Amino acid sequence: MTRSLPVLTVLGLIVAIWYAGAVLMNMAWTLDQAARSGQDLTFGQIVADTMTQRRPLLPPPHQVAQALWDGVAGEAVTSKRSLVYHALITVEATLSGFVLGIVVGIALAVAIVYSRVFDASVMPWAVISQTIPIVALAPMIVVLSNSLGLGERLGLDNRLVSKTIIAAYLSFFPVLVGMVKGLRSPDAMQTDLLATWNATGWQSFVKLRLPASMPYFFASLKVAIAAALVGAIVGELPTGAVEGLGARMLVASQFGQPLLMWASLFMAAIVAGLLILAVGGIERAANRRMGVRA
What we know:
single chain, elongated
């Protein structure tokens, strides 16, 4: 209880501010409708109306929670109205991009650590690549992947390939930075000790550098999986996708459905939390395998 009290206090404060903001932002519509009908509303009536509008500027928490519940439990998982169905579509692209980002990040990190040429040439460009807004880059990736026919060559859907590349683009950088830091974390005494034992470069990598990089690696994975989810959602916007959480957000924006928009946003946050928890579970399993106590 002592540990949860600060969290609950902050949560309660956020909810209170949210409700206050909903009243302030939604009351203009209520007052306008009252003026049109020649009614004088009390403050209580104004507050009550701002809590039940069909298309509020800022939906109150209970309306968002109801919309989220309807999207998750109120529809069959196979229904295209189900947020679970759309979340699974987004997770597919997220995981494929996440795996690709891990492969690229680790490969570049090893090359940078063991080659001064790569360190001087690749690392600055990797940093610069993250300064390009993904919203501007995503349409370019979609056009290039479609023109090259990557989907047909790989036997996959073109939209999935585009989303995978965008998710990998955002997720490789945390892995790259974390692995470079981790592979360089052994100090000079440890490397010198292996040198006195005539350890080869491969033995030094497997026995020292790779185990030492694991804490940095898993810390970067938690950032990378969240970035991959963002990339998958953003990648659904310019591809004309009709499925996925990004597509649901786009539809809600185009047709003026703020409750659906907020429910999709919270569904994305829940998915991100579950993915991070999954990475944490893999980390604990790896630590037990390596004999490391948390």
